[in-house]
Amino acid sequence: MSTTSIKLPDDIKQKANAAALDLGITPHAFMVEAIRKATLAAEKQAAFIADAQAARAATLQSGLGFAAADVHAHLRKRISKKINAEKKEKVSKPSKLAAKPWRA
Fold first, then answer.
1. 65 contact partners, CB below 8 Å, separation of at least 6
2. What's the predicted TM-score (pTM) here?
3. Which H or E element spans position 65?
4. Cα(56)–Cα(45) distance, rounded to whole angstroms?
5. Are strands 100-101 and 64-65 parallel, antiparallel or unpaired?
6. Helices 10-23, 27-62: crossing angle, 10 deg rounding
7. Rg of the chain in Å (alpha carbons)
8. Alpha helices per DSSP H over 63-100
9. Residue 65 — φ and ψ, nearest 5°?
10. How far apart are CA 28 and CA 7, in angstroms?
11. In this structure, are residues 63 and 99 in contact, taking their beta carbons and an 8 Å threshold?
12. How many whole angstroms separate alpha carbon 104 and alpha carbon 101?
């Protein structure tokens, strides 16, 4: 394990120490966990952006997409089906959405 030093403003250091004390851990463990969480969040955000860019590229290439109103109606049907299933009521399965050309 390597050592890294970090300079913190006094107010941040005091808050980190207080939070660590509240959690019953050392300030070092608190900062390591904070860095771990921030790293995971950054990785998830990067993956989300990469997925969005790939989806955009696929949509632009195919020229197919979904109208927002159709998606909203589909989701409402799915939610209604789930709620009614919990109430033991029968509801027909919503039809699968079909992508449509969106280019003019």
1. 59, 99, 100, 102
2. 0.67
3. strand 64-65
4. 16
5. antiparallel
6. 100
7. 24
8. 68-86
9. -165, -175
10. 13
11. no
12. 8
Residue 90 CA to its chain's centroid (Å): 32
20 vs 103, which has greater pLDDT?
20
Q: Which two tokens stand for residue 92?
A: 């027909």
Looking at this protein, which amino acid is placed at residue 38?
A
pLDDT > 70? residue 13:
yes
Phi, then psi, of 8 in degrees rounded to 5: -115, 145
Structure tokens at 62: 């195919």
Residue 82 near residue 94, CB atoms below 8 Å: no
In tens, the pLDDT along 37-52 reads: 999 999 999 999 999 9
Provide the CA 88 distance to its chain's centre, in angstroms. 31
